[in-house]
Amino acid sequence: MGQFLQHLVNTLILGGTYALLGIGLTLIFGIMRVVNFTHGELYAFGAYAVFALSMLLGANFFLALVLALLGGMALGALIEIVLLRPMRGADIDTTMLVMIGAWIIMQNLEMLTWGGVAKAVVTPFPEVPLVIGSVSVSYLRVFVLVMALVLIAATYFLINRTKLGKAMRATFQDADTAALMGVSINRIYTATFAIGSGLAAAAGALLGPVFLAFPTMGDLAALKSFAIVILGGLGSITGATIGGFILAFVEELGAGYVSSGYRDAMGFVIIILVLMFRPTGLFARAERIG
Amino acid sequence: MLNMTKLGGRALLAATFAVGFAAAATAQTKIGIIQPLTGPAAASGNYVANGAKIAVEEINAKGGVLGQKVELVIEDNKSNPTEAAAVAEKLITRDKVPVLMGAWGSSFTLAVMPKLMEYKVPMLVETSSSGKITTSGNPYIFRISPPSAVEAEAFAPKVQALGIKKVDFLVVNNDWGRGAADDFSKMLKSKGIQVGLVETMDQAAQDISAQLNKIKNSDADTLIITTAVEQLTLAFKQAAALGLKRRIITTGGSQNPDQLVEHAGAAANSTMHLTFFTPWKPEMSGNPEAAKAFIEEWKKRGYPFAGLTESFRGYDGIRTIVAAIEKAGKAEPEAIRAALWNVELKGMNGPIKFQKAGPAGKESGQSYPGVYLITIEDGKIIVPQS
Known about the structure:
The complex is a heterodimer of chains A (290) and B (386). Chain A has 290 residues and is mainly α. Chain A has eleven helices and two strands. Chain A has helices at residues 2-31, 39-56, 61-84, 92-114, 139-161, 163-173, 175-180, 185-207, 217-232, 237-258, 263-277, and strands at 130-132, 135-137. In chain A, strand 1 and strand 2 form a beta hairpin. The longest helix of chain A has 30 residues, at 2-31. Chain A is globular. Chain B is of the alpha/beta class and 386 residues long. Chain B has two domains: 29-146 and 285-366, Response regulator (Rossmann fold); 149-275, Response regulator (Rossmann fold), CATH 3.40.50.2300. In chain B, the strands form three sheets. Chain B has a seven-stranded mixed sheet, sandwiched between helices. Chain B is globular and about 60 Å long. Mean pLDDT of chain B is 90; it is low at 18-25. Classes of the chains: A mainly alpha (290), B alpha/beta (386). Chains A and B meet through helix 1, helix 9 and helix 10 of A and helix 2, strand 7, helix 8, helix 9 and helix 10 of B.
């Protein structure tokens, strides 16, 4: 029973992590329809930003988190303006190639700047875990879960309850009509990409200290993010959140009770099953054709 | 102006050719190196490559080998077996290197091995632990790192003293990790010690809490972990967060204990590690003078102390290869292969001398280095006296 409870708590912690990775990408890949291969590198950027600010420059850890998020947004805006704006109207394959190029360049720049040795970030949270009965969890991971839920709620609110969110949804449904209604299309594109990037950087900033910061850390994060977004349904914040928790649940219990060797495989089996029975993902909204 | 530019361009072109011919004229002895310079194992691969570079500079400062300078051609296997095989082919066919050193991970080395058979070029294996490497009948393999079985044998006398009754394993899911679990299990069972769970983790996995939680609920007293330093750091931190209290022993020699202390903090305390070089006590080395000089040079170049437990292999590997070229009298693959059998030198972790391993008639060479069990206590590395 103790083992099962601990697995459930682990699922909650890991699910929060996955959901956080998923929502940033669902904005860019799901709503903007840009196959964003730089997502993992923005995640790595967030982790290195926190390392540089808090470990090298001695900034407060929480301030470093906020700055990493803002830095990620700025970097995202730059990528959108420099790489994607000239590609507007190009087909999805061309854009994809550009993003693959950007991914390789960014990852190699990280390698050049920081070297291959992993970096560890020390946080103000105690190393001794929080123990409740038979369940044990680190304070840092509880903090990450809470922050993930806050960011998910904020993104949901932004997309579904604000004027900017409405303009975003309008733009990506029908850019011409949105423009005719007075929406500044270019600004919306940049803003959406920046927000999605900021969320990726925030995920990296929160998880870098939990794990380690190293140049290829973004690869696995990006792979999981794409899986979560596809599982949840493109463009759905709720879908990405629930998708994250489902993936965590399957991996955790699969490794705990079936076989750890197939831990990652089990996540993908679930995705294949979902796609077989609900090809648009669990929570995709009905698509408007034409 | 335009003409001037054109002229300049032609002059440059001519100069390039001239330099090219000049380089070809002063022949050099090439050694190919395959290491993971990027990807998850990048840190370790770069340490090994840097150790190799120090060896080459030392050798060249003393006049090189057979009157020629030694030149390293270093290629990146990107922590990927497919890439490892591809760059081996490139080094052999395009760079025409007569001998290779590599490829750090067991899976990378195993991927390179068929190429050695195909082109009949020998390779010195400096790090890989999987038993399969020297038992599969590849006569072009010469290994200076201990295979897991040798490591397990070296650990065997300590099992009793530590009072180990039942062991669980947590290993990286590749040839190295699974091989270590097999070889250590065999040794433990022969001593009547129970083997419990054998859990695996993907090379890139970061969250290992599920496996650790399962292990926490077993009744074993000891956990043996085999993986590289980054994943060990994560495993220690996550084990501490889960309140997993158990004797932890790591194998494989890629733990970089100083990095563990720095990154895992208190979570690394009272963990034990099987290592193959003790830079904390160079006087314990199989070649104390060389070890001290190497450590000195490593520090002078500003490389991190933690890298020494990896880099010494690159240094020893190149020295072994050069000794073989010297003995062979010519830098040709077959001559080097034959000469490697007769090489004898003092390595950092004991004498390097190859003994036959694997099926008769197509034996691989295996050298038997020292293995040390160190402990981390209060953030300090404790090296035993013997």
